[in-house]
Amino acid sequence: MSKEIVDVQNVGMKYQSLNGEINALEDISFSVKKGEFVSIVGPSGCGKSTLLSVISGLIKPTHGKVFIDGEEVTKTSHKVGYMLQKDYLFEWRTIYQNVILGLEIRKILTPENREHALELLKTYGLYEFKDKYPNQLSGGMRQRAALIRTLAVKPEILLLDEAFSALDYQTRLAVTEDIYSIIKNEGKTAIMVTHDIAESISMSDRVIVLTRRPAVIKSIHSIEFADCPNRTPLKCRDAPNFRQYFNTIWRELDVHV
Ligand code: ADP
Ligand code: MG
Question: For residue 11, which phi and psi values (nearest 5 degrees)?
Answer without folding.
Answer: -80, 130
